[in-house]
Amino acid sequence: MKIYRVYGEALTPLHIGSGVVIEPYEYVISKDRLYKIDLAELLISLEDKEREIILGLLEKDILGLRRFIRERVDLSRYSQFSVGVSSKISHLYEEKLDELKNQLLIGLFIRSLNRPYIPGSSLKGALRTAVIFHLLSGKTEEKFSDRLEGKILGCLDNRGFLNPSSDPFRAIKIRDVSLEKESTVIEEIETFRNDGGRLKSMGMQMIKEVVFPKRSFETELLIDDDLFRKNRDMGRRLNIELFINACSDFYQQVIDGEMDYFKRTEIASNYERFLQLDKGEFLLRLGWGSGFNSTTVNLKMPRSKQIRTRRLVAGHLPLGWIKAKIAPI
To answer: Sign of dihedral through CA atoms 64, 65, 66, 71?
Structure first.
C-alpha cells in the first residue's frame, strides 16, 4: 500500500450537497449567522400547549411558524450548529421572511456529526474524469458512459460493459476531509449567460452553503498496489504521475473553454490567475455547479454540446475550483 499526502486549497467557493435543503422555519438568521434549529429536540422539550401551537402552525400557517421560531426559540439551546451568512443573504432573509411565495430554501453542505466535510469520493471522481479525458485519444462520437470508461480503463466484461471488479479505481482510496470551523458560509448563487461581453442574470436564484476561497485542507490518497499484483484482470495501472498529468491536461482545456466563454468580462482574469501554479501543483474541479464540461468528456466530442449558462457566486466567482499537490508520506 502506497500512501500519499494531498494538500488542497479552495480557489473558488465549493458546494457539495447531501440533498438536505432547509426551509425558513428550520433556521434563524441573526447577526449574520444562520442557526439550524433542532426541531425534534424543541418539540420534545416544549410544554403541551406550546407543542400544539407549533404543530398547528406547521399545518396551517407557515409564516406564523417562521415568526414563532424566530421570536421565541432559544438559539443557544436548540440550534444544532451555526454558520456565517453573507450580508446579501442576511438582508434577503429580513426582507422576504414574511413573504409566503419566497421559500428561502437553503442547500446545506454535506455533514457528519454536524460538521461539514469533503467526501474523498468527490475528489476521486474528479481525478477519474480527468484520467478518462486524458487517456481518450482524439475526438470521440461515443457518449460519456460506463462503457466508454470501461474501454479506456481496460475493465470491460465479456458483454462489453464496465466490470466493477476489475476497475483500476478500486485500488484508489481518498480519505474524507473534515473541514475546520468557520470554513463555510451561506451565499447566493445565480445563473448567468454571456450577452455580448456582459453577464446577464437569468433570474434563477439559489442559496447554498459553500466553502470559503483560500481555505486549505489535507487528506490522504492510498494506492493498493497489491490489488494490481494479485488481480491480473485489473485494468490500466494507476499512479500519481498519471493523475497529475491527467489533471493538468483536462483542467487546462476546461479553463481554456471557460476563458473563451467569459472573454470580455472580468471573470476571465480569475481563470488566468488559477493557472499560476507552483511546481507539482495541479487543478481539480468538483462539487455542485462545476458544469457539464468539468464532469464529462464533452470537450473531446467532435460536436461538443454548447453550454450557454454558468452559475456564479456573488456575480463573479465560479464554483468548485481547487488547487492541489500530492507528496509521498
So the answer is: positive
